[in-house]
Specification:
The complex is a heterotrimer. Chain A has 17 helices and two strands. By secondary structure, chain A is mostly helical. In chain A, helix 5 packs antiparallel against helix 14, helix 5 (63-77) packs antiparallel against helix 16 (311-330) and helix 6 packs parallel to helix 8 (134-153). By secondary structure, chain B is an all-alpha fold. Chain B has one domain (10-367): ABC transporter involved in vitamin B12 uptake, BtuC (Orthogonal Bundle). Chain B has 15 helices and two strands. The longest helix of chain B has 33 residues, at 101-133. Chain B starts with 9 loop residues before the first helix and ends with a helix. The chains are: A mainly alpha, B mainly alpha, C alpha/beta. Chains in contact: A-B, A-C, B-C. The interface between B and C is large, with 72 and 56 residues.
Chain lengths: 365, 368, 418
C-alpha cells in the first residue's frame, strides 16, 4: 500500500535537508519558480506580455478551471486522488440552472449548487463510509449522470431564452414545473435569460470579469477553510493517514464526505458560469475538466498521497496552465506542439518535485 | 489487501467469477429481447468490435495488478496506429512501391509493425521508469504522458488521417478463416487477439514472474522483503501496457486501412472502456488480484449490452447509463463486502463463542 | 447469509433493469414488422390485378410523390428537399498533395471527392419506386445537430413513404464499424452513411459495396477512393460556402486585412474547408488578406476566448478578421474576448446557423455566418435514395441549399433548427 515508505524513509530526513537546499526551494515554491521562469520567457514572446490586459486575459481564461480545481483540491488533499464526476456535475448543474432560471437568478444558482451538493453527498457517503476507490466510483457516477442527462433531454439542448410547449416535455424539472405551474408559459423568458447570460458578461471596473472575482473568492474561501479551520486540520490528518485520523477521534467519514461535497459544489458553480458563457445548457459542457483540474493541482505541488500542499499552490498551478498556453500562442506555436510541450512540462515538474521530496525524506510513492 | 476470509464460500467463488455470471445473464436476456443477437453476422460484428479494447486491456490489467494505473493507453493506441500506417507508407515507397511486389508489401508491413510496437514499448518504458525509479505516482505520470503523446500523434500525422492505398493486408487479416456460420468471426486478427490473451494469461497464472507481480501488487513492502525486484516488475508491467496498446492500435488501423489521430476523443473513450471492463472483470484497484481472460470477457459483456441496446433502438444514453450502473454496482458490492469485513476486524469468533458458551453454562448452572 | 441475499438482490436488480429495457424496445421490435406488412400491402391495395402492374403503380405513385417536393418544409420554414446549386469542377491536378499550401487545388481530393472518379460498377437500381423501401441511416454522434439531421431525414422519409431506421455510433469509429456490419446483416434496400473519417471511409464503403447494398454518403465528404463505392454524395458545400463567406468579408474590409483562423478538429474535411480553403482562396484572389495565425482550441468557450485574447494582445491593430469554424462555443468565446478588449472593429465570420450563432449575428457579435440546414442534411440524402429507386441516374454529388446569413436576412431563417 501507499503509505509505508513514507514512514520509514522519514527517519533520516533531517540530515538530507541540509544537503539539498535546492530541493527545499523546489518543493516549497516549485510552481512559482516555474512561473518566474516563464515570465522571463514571456518577455521575449511579445512586448505586450507584461500588460495588465494580458494578465487579465490569462486569469479570466482559467477562472472556470480555477473554480473546479479549488474544489477538487479538497478531494486530493484528503488522499482520494480525484473526482472524475466533475464534468457531468458541471453539465447537470448548468442544465438545472437553465431550467430554474425562469424563476430568477437566485433560485437558478441555488438549485445548481444544491444539485452539486446532493451528488457530492452521494459520492462522499459511498467513498467515505465504504472506502470505495474514489476514481472508479466517481467515474461510474459520471457515466450514470451522463446517461441521465442525455436520456432526459433526448439529444436536445436547452436554451435560456427559448421555450415552447414541447420544451416542457423533456428535461429534469421542466415537465414537473409545467404540471405544477400553469402560468409558466407566461414568464418573460427573454428578460430572465438576459440576466442569466449576463453572469458571464458582468465586469467590475469595466475590465474585471465577474467570473474572475468569483474564482478568487472561491479560492480565498477554500484557502481559509483548508488552512484556518478545524475542518482543514482534520482534512490534513485524514489525508495523511485515514486510520490515524479515525483513531484520533476524527470522524473520517464525514471529513471525506465534506471534501466531495466541496468538490461538487465548486464544480456546479463552474457549471453555471460555463453554461452562461455558452448560452446553452447541454450534456457536453465541462468535458476534460476532470483531468485538467488534477493537472493544475499537481502542478501546484499538492501530493496525491494527501495531506500535503496548499490552495495557494493550486492557484499557482492554475495560473501556470493559463500562462503556458498564453506564451505558446504568443510565440505562434500550433495547437499540436502546445499539447506536447505542456505534457512534457508537466512530467518534468512532477518528476523534479518527486525527486526533491524524496531527497527531503518525504517520499510519497 | 483484505480478501474474502472465507475463500471456500460459494458466494465469494461466485464473486471471483462474477463476470461469467454477468455474461450469462446478458446473453439470456438478449436472447429473449433481441433474437437476432445470436445470428452469425451479429456475432461477427460484435467480436470484431471487441478486438481493440480487449488487446488494449491486457497491459492495463497487468499495470493494475501491479498496483498502478496507466491512463496513457488512449494516446498510445493512436500512436501505434498512426506510426504503423505512416511508417508503412514510407517503407513501402522505400522498397519501390508497387514495383516491389509482394516482398515489398510484406517487408514494409513487418517493419511498420516493428516501429509501432517500438513506439508503444518506448512510451511504456518511459512511464515505467518515471513510476518505478523516479517514484512519481502512476496516475500523474500517465496523465502527463496522455497529453504529451497525443501532441506527438498530432505532430506526426500533421493532424491528418493517414491512409494506405493497398488493401492487401486488410483483406487478409479480416477475412474469415472458415466462412461457415457462427465461426466466421474467426479471422486472423481474432486469432492474434486470442494468442496474445492466452500468452499473457499464461505468464500471469503459470509463471514465477506472474506470481511475483501479484505479490508486488498486493504488498510491495513484503514483496521487497521476499527478495522480489519490485521496481523491475512495475517497470515491465508498463512496458507490456505500452506494447499491447500499440499493437491494438496498429491492428485497428490496418482493419480500417487508415489511422485516425483522434480516435477516442468522442464517445466512450477506449481508456474508460478498458478501465471499466478491467474493474468489472474482477481486477482489484489497489492491485494484487486480477485476470486477463476475465477482463476480456468483461469487454465482451459490455459490448454485448451496447450491441443489444443499439439494436433495440436505444441511444447512447442507455448505453452509458448501463455501463455506469454495472460499474457502480460492482464497486459498490465489492467495497460493501470489504466494509462488512472491516467491521469484524479484530473480532475473535472463537473467543466469542467460548464466552457465549461459558455464559450459557453459568446461567444453566445458576438455574439448577 | 446477508451477503448472499445482497448478491441475489443485486443480480435481480440488474436483471430487472435489463428486462425492462428489453421490454421497452421489444415493443418497438413488434411494431417494425407490422409497419412492414402495411407497406408491402399498400401497392397490392391500390392495384390488385397482377404483379408487374403492381410494381408499375408503385413506381407511378413514387414518381407522383416526387412532384410535391417543394411543399415539404423544415422547422425553420425553408424548403427541405430542394438541392442547392452545383459548382463547376476544375480539372484534377496530377498530385494534389505535392502542391504548395496556398494552392486552392491542393485540397481537390477533399473538395471535389468522387467528381471525376471512375466508379466501381454501380449496383443496379430495381427501379420499382421508392415507396416502402427500407433505409438504414448511420450518423456520427449524439449532438443536437444530429438530432436535427435525423428529424429532417424522418420528415423526408415520411413524405416519400419510405421506411427509415437511424443509428448513432456517438463518435466512436470502432462502434461505427460495428453498426455497418449490423446494417449489412439486416439487408436494407439502401444504407446512408456519414463517415466519421474521410479516409477511413474507403474501407467502410467498400465493405457495404461488397455486400451488394447500395450506399449514399451524406453530411461528410468521404475520400476520393471511397467515392468509387458510393452512389452519390449529399453534403453541405462547405468549401463553396466558405469561399463565398471569405469573399463577403473581404469585400467588407476592402480586401485588405490581417486574418486569424480558429480551426475545426484537425484532419476532418471541415478543417480544410473552413481554414486551408479560405487561406488558399485569399492567397489567390485577395493577396492583401494576410494570414496571421491559426489555432485549434476545440469547441470550448473559455479556451476560444483565451486564444482570441492572445491574438489581440499579439497582433493588436493588425488583426481585423477572424474566421471561426463553429458558431456556438467558439463564437461565444470569441465575442467575449473582443468585447473585453473593446475591439468591435474586428469582423468575425463562422460556419453554421445554430440558435447561438443567429443570436450573435443579431447582436453584432458575428458579422456573417453560413446557412447550413441540419434537417436538409438528412432529408436530401433520403431524396437522392428515392430518386435512385425511381430509376433515375444520380449525379455524383448534391449540395445543400446555400446562403450567407447577415444581420439583414437573419429573420428569414428563424426559428433555428438546433
Amino acid at each position: 500500500m501507499l503509505h509505508i515508505n513514507a514512514v520509514d524513509s522519514g527517519a533520516n530526513a533531517p540530515a538530507s535537508i541540509k544537503k539539498s537546499s535546492f530541493s527545499t526551494i523546489a518543493n516549497r515554491f516549485g510552481v512559482f519558480l516555474m512561473i518566474g521562469a516563464l515570465f522571463i520567457v514571456g518577455a521575449f514572446a511579445s512586448p505586450q506580455f507584461f500588460s495588465a490586459s494580458n494578465f487579465l486575459n490569462i486569469l479570466s481564461a482559467v477562472s472556470i478551471l480555477g473554480m473546479v480545481a479549488a474544489g477538487v483540491a479538497f478531494v486530493i488533499y484528503c488522499g482520494k486522488y480525484g473526482d472524475m464526476s466533475v464534468p457531468m456535475v458541471m453539465a447537470i448543474s448548468g442544465v438545472i440552472s437553465v431550467e430554474l432560471m425562469r424563476y430568477g437568478l437566485v433560485p437558478a444558482i441555488c438549485g445548481a449548487v444544491a444539485t452539486g451538493a446532493v451528488i457530492g453527498c452521494v459520492n462522499g457517503v459511498v467513498i467515505g463510509k465504504l472506502k470505495v476507490n474514489a476514481i472508479i466510483w466517481t467515474l461510474a457516477m459520471n457515466f450514470i449522470l451522463e446517461g441521465l442527462v442525455r436520456w432526459s433531454y433526448k439529444g436536445e439542448q436547452i436554451y435560456p431564452d427559448m421555450a415552447t410547449e414541447s420544451t416542457y416535455q423533456t428535461g429534469f424539472l421542466l415537465p414537473l414545473m409545467h404540471s405544477l405551474d400553469s402560468h409558466i408559459m407566461e414568464i418573460d423568458l427573454v428578460k430572465r435569460a438576459e440576466a442569466f447570460n449576463g453572469l458571464a458578461q458582468t465586469y467590475f471596473f469595466g475590465r474585471i470579469p465577474l467570473m474572475l472575482v468569483v474564482m478568487v473568492c472561491v479560492m480565498a474561501a477554500c484557502y481559509f477553510v483548508m488552512s484556518k479551520t478545524a475542518y482543514g486540520n482534520q482534512l490534513k490528518v485524514v489525508g495523511s493517514s485515514y486510520d490515524v485520523g479515525n483513531m484520533s477521534g476524527i470522524r473520517a467519514t464525514s471529513v471525506v464526505m465534506g471534501a466531495f461535497m466541496v468538490s461538487s459544489i465548486c464544480a456546479s458553480l463552474a457549471g453555471v458560469f460555463i453554461t452562461s458563457i455558452n448560452k446553452v445548457g447541454a450534456f457536453y459542457v465541462g468535458q476534460g475538466y476532470d483531468f485538467q483540474a488534477v493537472t493544475a493541482i499537481i502542478l501546484g505541488g499538492m501530493s496525491l498521497a494527501g495531506g500535503r500542499g496548499s490552495i495557494i499552490g493550486v492557484f499557482g498551478g492554475v495560473f501556470l496552465m493559463g500562462l503556458i498556453s498564453n506564451i505558446l500562442t504568443l510565440f505562434g506555436v500550433g495547437t499540436f506542439t502546445q499539447k506536447m510541450i505542456s505534457g512534457a512540462i508537466f512530467i518534468v515538474v512532477v518528476a523534479v518535485n518527486a525527486r526533491s521530496l524524496r531527497k527531503l525524506g518525504r517520499d510519497d510513492a | 489487501m483484505l480478501k474474502n476470509i472465507n475463500r471456500n464460500n460459494l458466494i465469494s467463488k461466485g464473486n471471483d467469477n462474477r463476470i461469467y455470471v454477468f455474461l450469462a445473464i446478458v446473453f439470456i436476456v438478449l436472447a429473449f429481447a433481441y433474437p437476432a443477437f445470436f445470428s452469425s453476422p451479429n456475432i461477427k460484428a460484435l467480436t470484431t468490435t471487441c478486438l481493440l479494447p480487449i488487446l488494449a486491456s491486457i497491459g492495463f490489467t497487468y499495470v493494475m495488478i501491479g498496483g498502478n494505473f496507466d491512463l496513457s493507453i488512449g494516446s498510445v493506441i493512436n500512436a501505434g496506429s498512426v506510426v504503423c500506417m505512416g511508417q508503412f507508407n514510407q517503407f513501402f515507397r522505400g522498397f519501390g512501391g508497387d514495383a516491389g511486389g509482394t516482398g515489398a508489401l510484406v517487408g514494409a508491413w513487418a517493419l511498420a509493425f516493428v516501429c509501432a510496437i517500438a513506439i508503444g514499448v518506448g512510451i511504456g518504458a518511459l512511464n515505467g521508469f518515471l513510476v518505478a525509479k523516479v517514484k512519481v505516482h502512476s496516475f500523474i505520470v500517465t496523465i502527463g504522458m496522455l497529453t504529451a503523446v497525443s501532441g506527438f500523434v498530432y505532430t506526426y500525422s500533421n493532424g491528418n488521417t493517414i491512409s494506405v492505398n493497398s488493401y492487401a493486408l486488410v483483406d487478409v487479416i479480416d477475412k474469415s478463416v472458415v466462412s461457415l456460420p457462427y465461426i466466421e468471426m474467426i479471422t486472423p486478427r481474432f486469432l492474434v487477439m486470442v494468442a496474445v490473451v492466452a500468452i499473457f494469461e499464461f505468464v500471469l497464472v503459470k509463471t514465477r514472474w506472474g506470481y511475483d507481480l501479484f505479490m508486488v501488487g498486493s504488498n510491495k513492502e513484503s514483496a521487497f522483503q521476499a527478495g522480489i525486484n519490485t521496481e523491475k516488475k512495475v517497470f515491465l508491467s508498463f512496458v507490456i501496457s505500452g506494447f499491447t496498446a500499440a499493437i491494438s492500435g496498429a491492428l485497428f488501423a490496418v482493419s480500417m486501412n487508415a489511422a485516425v489521430p483522434n480516435y477516442g476523443e468522442r464517445g466512450i473513450a477506449p481508456l474508460m472502456m478498458v478501465l471499466a471492463s478491467t474493474i468489472i472483470g474482477g481486477t482489484v484497484m489497489t492491485g494484487g488480484s486480477g485476470s486477463v481472460v476475465k477482463t476480456a470477457f468483461a469487454v465482451l459483456t459490455i459490448q454485448s449490452i451496447f450491441n443489444g441496446l443499439i439494436s433495440m433502438g436505444m441511444g447512447f444514453d442507455a448505453q452509458v447509463l448501463s455501463a455506469g450502473v454495472l460499474l457502480g454496482a460492482v464497486v459498490f458490492y465489492e467495497s460493501f463486502s470489504l466494509y462488512r469485513q472491516s467491521l469484524r476486524k479484530g473480532e475473535r469468533p472463537a473467543l466469542l463463542k467460548e464466552a457465549a458458551e461459558l455464559r450459557r453454562g453459568l446461567s444453566a448452572g445458576s438455574g439448577t | 447469509m446477508k451477503k448472499k441475499l445482497f448478491l441475489i438482490a443485486a443480480l435481480c436488480i440488474v436483471m430487472a433493469a435489463t428486462m425492462s429495457l428489453a421490454a421497452c424496445s421489444g415493443g418497438g421490435q413488434e411494431e417494425a414488422p407490422a409497419d412492414d406488412t402495411a407497406t408491402t400491402e399498400e401497392p397490392a391495395a391500390t392495384d390488385t390485378t397482377d404483379e408487374p402492374a403492381a410494381t408499375e403503380s408503385n413506381l407511378d405513385a413514387s414518381k407522383a410523390l416526387m412532384a410535391s417536393l417543394e411543399s415539404v418544409k423544415g422547422s425553420d420554414g425553408q424548403p427541405l428537399l430542394i438541392y442547392g446549386e452545383a459548382r463547376e469542377v476544375p480539372e484534377k491536378p496530377a498530385d494534389p498533395d505535392a502542391l504548395p499550401e496556398d494552392d486552392p487545388l491542393k485540397y481537390w481530393n477533399i473538395e471535389y471527392a468522387g467528381r471525376q472518379t471512375e466508379k466501381a460498377e454501380e449496383i443496379k437500381s430495381p427501379a420499382d419506386g421508392c415507396i416502402g423501401k427500407k433505409i438504414i441511416a448511420i450518423g456520427q454522434s449524439e449532438h443536437p445537430y444530429w438530432t436535427a439531421v435525423f428529424n429532417g431525414a424522418k420528415t423526408a422519409a415520411d413524405a416519400l413513404q419510405m421506411e427509415l431506421t437511424t443509428w448513432n455510433p456517438n463518435g466512436d469509429l470502432n462502434q461505427q464499424n460495428q453498426l455497418i456490419d449490423k446494417a449489412i446483416a439486416e439487408k436494407p434496400d439502401i444504407i446512408m452513411l456519414s463517415p466519421l473519417d474521410a479516409k477511413a471511409s474507403a474501407q467502410q464503403f467498400k465493405k457495404i459495396y461488397d455486400a451488394g447494398i447500395p450506399a449514399i454518403a451524406y453530411n461528410m465528404v468521404p475520400s476520393d477512393e471511397a467515392m468509387r463505392y458510393v452512389l452519390a454524395l449529399t453534403a453541405p458545400d462547405d468549401f463553396g460556402q466558405f469561399k463565398k463567406l471569405g469573399e463577403y468579408v473581404a469585400e467588407a474590409v476592402g480586401g485588405k486585412a490581417g486574418v486569424c483562423y480558429m480551426t475545426h478538429l484537425p484532419g476532418g474535411s471541415p478543417y480544410f474547408a473552413r481554414y486551408s480553403n479560405v487561406r488558399a482562396f485569399y492567397a489567390e484572389n485577395y493577396p492583401d488578406m494576410k494570414y496571421l495565425d491559426h489555432q485549434s482550441p476545440g469547441f470550448e468557450a473559455p479556451k476560444a476566448k483565451q486564444v482570441v485574447a492572445d491574438w489581440i494582445t499579439k497582433y493588436g491593430d493588425q488583426l481585423n478578421v477572424i474566421v471561426l469554424s463553429d458558431d456556438s462555443a467558439q463564437a461565444e468565446g470569441c465575442a467575449q474576448a473582443i468585447r473585453e478588449a473593446g475591439r468591435d472593429d474586428i469582423k468575425v465570420v463562422a460556419a453554421g446557423n445554430s440558435k447561438v450563432g443567429m443570436d450573435l449575428v443579431k447582436s453584432g457579435g458575428l458579422f456573417a455566418i453560413t446557412y447550413q440546414s441540419a434537417e436538409a442534411d438528412g432529408a436530401i440524402a433520403v431524396r437522392a435514395a428515392a430518386e435512385y429507386f425511381n430509376g433515375e441516374t444520380l449525379e455524383p454529388c448534391y449540395y445543400l441549399p446555400q446562403a450567407i446569413i447577415t444581420k439583414d436576412n437573419v429573420a428569414d431563417y428563424e426559428p433555428a433548427q438546433w
